[in-house]
């Protein structure tokens, strides 16, 4: 019987050279990878493996429900002037405050905004968003960098980590870090170079691994020729977990998903900009939903404080509403305002008054409330039903038409 023996493809005559090969290996300088291991910092994380049977199966956790998962790297891109920074500011403010992002619940937590340009404009946009939503900027866990970063420079990248760590001590780890824009925070490199882009991606991954669970969101420009993709090396898109394109059509801003690695792509979102006066001679704008239904009967969406004011109205009407033979005649400003103030006890008195005034305007503009003489009257049948149901539970009911 013939026996076949596998061998390495070397001639048997070569075996005599093994001693010489072993000697040359012993005298050779370490390989580059080995050198890197030997020179790694003492505190560097070890490279390890986990058996697949030991992996923990988790349901997806979202930073922005249905739009952005936690522990991901993502990109928002678009042409200059398309509104992409308005989107980035809106996302940052919603996460920092816990306010829904246009109907999508968020995971609230500290946000770090690494701004490469437009610092004065960003200050106005943050103020406009806070004013529109009746929210105080004081003590908000949202921090904007004073200068751009240079992530291809190791020293600059380390300085970013150090600055974030200093604030983590008192505010907790970030849940969202935004880099606006890639170009202004890139550093000494070429966006079209796969090698340089790989280094930038590695710097972003280092931020994610530093604070597990955090989302790293990059704001970037569209390609020069192809507006449907982000500018620069394709290695960037390959590294992303999600990607959104911002485009503008007339006064409408569209947010469309162009990559969703581990979830179903969400439906497109549509916005317009509403201008807010911030002081004499200067203003900014905020995103507001642009209903796909353009008819005058399209339902408007209420902000957080307007919703609270609506609930406060129901409570005030049940306890102190003026009722006649035809049912509810209205609620006085005094009783409604008092119920609203009780719903926002942590607001400063001046902020309470401003929030109530704006909420009243919003509820009137949406047709939910009308002025009825010296009273305010609800028009929505669901609100009127809720008031009637709660009347029996109220401690006191005013049926005298007295205010």
Record the SSE blueprint.
Blueprint: H1 18-27, H2 32-39, E1 62-64, E2 68-69, E3 73-78, H3 84-97, E4 111-115, H4 119-132, E5 142-144, H5 154-171, E6 176-180, H6 194-210, E7 215-221, H7 235-239, E8 242-249, E9 252-260, E10 269-279, E11 282-289, H8 304-320, E12 322-324, E13 327-332, H9 333-343, H10 349-365, E14 369-372, E15 375-378, H11 381-391
Parallel strand pairs: 3-7, 3-8, 4-5, 4-6, 6-7
Antiparallel strand pairs: 1-2, 8-9, 9-10, 10-11, 12-13, 13-15, 14-15
Helix pairs in contact: 3-4, 8-9, 8-10, 8-11
Provide the CATH architecture of the largest domain.
Answer: 3-Layer(aba) Sandwich
Number of strands: 15
Structural category is alpha/beta
- Regions with little confidence, pLDDT below 50 for 5+ residues: 1-26, 28-38, 293-299, 394-403
- Taking all Cα atoms into account, the compactness measure Rg is 29 Å
Number of helices: 11
Q: What is the succession of H and E elements?
A: HHEEEHEHEHEHEHEEEEHEEHHEEH
CATH superfamily of the largest domain: P-loop containing nucleotide triphosphate hydrolases
Largest sheet: 9 strands, mixed
Large-scale geometry: elongated
- The average pLDDT score comes to 84
Give the total of domains.
2
Strand order across the largest sheet: 5-4-6-7-3-8-9-10-11
N-C termini distance: 112 Å
Enter the CATH topology name of the largest domain. Answer: Rossmann fold
Question: How much of the residues is beta strand, in percent?
Answer: 15-25%
CATH C-level class of the largest domain: Alpha Beta
């Amino acid at each position: 019987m013939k026996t076949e023996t596998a061998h390495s493809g070397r001639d048997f005559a070569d075996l005599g050279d093994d001693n010489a090969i072993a000697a040359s290996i012993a005298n050779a300088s370490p390989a580059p990878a080995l050198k890197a291991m030997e020179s790694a910092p003492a505190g560097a994380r070890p490279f390890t493996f986990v058996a697949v049977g030991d992996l923990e199966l988790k349901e997806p956790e979202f930073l922005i429900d249905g739009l952005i998962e936690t522990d991901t790297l993502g990109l928002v891109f678009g042409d200059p002037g398309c509104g992409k920074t308005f989107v980035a500011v809106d996302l940052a403010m919603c996460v920092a405050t816990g306010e829904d992002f246009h109907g999508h619940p968020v995971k609230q937590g500290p946000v770090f905004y690494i701004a490469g340009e437009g610092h004065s404009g960003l200050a106005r946009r943050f103020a406009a968003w806070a004013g529109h939503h009746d929210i105080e900027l004081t003590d908000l866990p949202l921090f904007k960098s004073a200068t751009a970063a240079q992530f291809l420079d190791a020293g600059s990248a380390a300085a970013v980590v150090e600055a974030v760590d200093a604030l983590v001590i008192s505010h907790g780890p970030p849940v969202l870090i935004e880099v606006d824009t890639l170009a202004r925070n890139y550093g000494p490199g070429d966006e079209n170079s796969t090698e340089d882009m790989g280094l930038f991606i590695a710097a972003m991954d280092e931020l994610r691994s530093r604070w597990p669970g955090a989302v790293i969101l990059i704001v970037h420009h569209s390609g020069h020729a192809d507006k449907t993709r982000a500018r620069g090396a394709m290695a960037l898109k390959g590294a992303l977990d999600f990607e959104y394109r911002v485009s503008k059509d007339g006064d409408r801003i569209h947010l469309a998903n162009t990559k969703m690695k581990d979830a179903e792509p969400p439906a497109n979102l549509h916005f317009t900009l509403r201008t807010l006066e911030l002081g004499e001679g200067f203003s900014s704008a905020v995103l507001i939903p642009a209903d796909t239904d353009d008819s005058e009967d399209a339902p408007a969406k209420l902000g957080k404080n307007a919703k609270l004011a609506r609930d406060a109205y129901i409570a005030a009407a049940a306890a102190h509403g003026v009722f006649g033979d035809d049912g509810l005649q209205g609620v006085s400003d005094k009783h409604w305002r008092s119920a609203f103030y009780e719903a926002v006890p942590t607001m400063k008195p001046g902020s309470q008054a401003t929030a109530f005034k704006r909420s009243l305007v919003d509820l009137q503009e949406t047709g939910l409330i009308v002025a009825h003489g010296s009273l305010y009257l609800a028009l929505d049948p669901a609100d009127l039903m809720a008031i009637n149901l709660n009347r029996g539970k109220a401690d006191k009911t005013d049926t005298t038409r007295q205010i």
